């Protein structure tokens, strides 16, 4: 996935040193995964990736 992150920082105080650590820009996320069905309607899936999360897993149902 390719996205654009929009970050904005504001402060009521005089210290603006934190404003330089926030920034907008392009972001890249990649993942690889699979889905396995144990019966005609019930299965599991798993994804490994970089970006939003390292591991995503769960169950899936077909109706």
Automatic annotation (TrEMBL):
Name recorded for this polypeptide: Outer membrane protein beta-barrel domain-containing protein
The organism of origin for this protein: Candidatus Sphingobacterium stercoripullorum
Domain of life (superkingdom): Bacteria
